[in-house]
Amino acid sequence: MERYRITAPQPSFGCQACLPLADRQTMEVHIHVIVGRLCADLNVLIDGFPMMHGMEAEEICRRAFQLPRLIREDVRFSAGGIACHTYYFRYLTADEGEHLPEGRAAEALKCSFGSPDSFFYIFREEAKRMQTGGFLWLCTESRSHVSRLRLITTRGYDLPPAPYLPLLALDLWEHAYIGRFGEDRRAYADAFLRRLDWDAVGSTIAARACGG
Ligand SMILES: [Fe+2]
If both were cysteines, with which of 88, 94, 105, 139 could 13 make a disulfide (CB 3.0 to 4.6 Å apart)? Predict the structure, then answer.
């Protein structure tokens, strides 16, 4: 019988360059070394706990309290790290060139931040303001039928707390940006936003607004 194994998340286009966000070497190190190590650690940690097998890393992270205290924090770190990177890679598109929000995504950003341009500005400023070693999240808040978008920051590999539902995340650990952007996290955040599949983001927002 094949053993259950968590594998490293990566963009839909695989381990390729995603210019101007990241060159191929950065992506390879990010996916195979950084996230690969988190996966290897998590697979060892949960090997003896079949109730965790088959779960996504995010669910394992949120259910870590069910595991023995001795390994709980290590599981939260590894599973949280994999989940954070899943949201970082989730909407990156293979298509080069500029991608700007239109349609449903643009409408949602307008409702929550005034306009897509305002959102881009706030996102860039938050990325600049944050210290290294965390994630900047765009989340929906679905306590009613109207989904509102929120920016949330977390430290380490922590996930946004309820009631925030992650939509996408910017990796603000140095390994993600230092080689290409130095300390210019504004430019890094801007490059990230312009390589996202905003149609897919809009579809997820719409699905959540309908209770999906
Ligand atoms: Fe990372």
Answer: 94
For residue 33, is pLDDT > 90?
yes
Domain boundary among 32, 57, 89: 89
Tell me how far the alpha carbon of residue 36 lies from the centroid of ligand 1, in angstroms.
Answer: 11
CATH number of the CATH domain containing 29:
1.10.287.990
Which pair of tokens denotes residue 157?
């590999």
Ligand 1 centroid vs 25 CA: distance in angstroms?
13
The first and second tokens of residue 71, run together, are 């390994």
pLDDT given for residue 1 in this prediction: 41
Number of structural domains found in the chain: 2
CA atoms within 13 A on the CB side of 8: 18
Render pLDDT for 102-134 as a digit per residue (tens, 0 to 9). 999 999 999 999 999 999 999 999 999 998 899
Half-sphere exposure of 17 (CA within 13 A, CB side): 7
pLDDT at 212 over 80: no
For residue 146, how far is its CA from the centre of ligand 1 (angstroms)?
32
Domain CATH code at residue 202: 3.55.40.20
**Of the candidates 81, 84, 102, 93, the residue with the CA atom closest to the CA atom of residue 192:** 93
The CA–CA distances, whole Å, from 168 to 50, 84, 89, 196 equal 29, 9, 8, 10
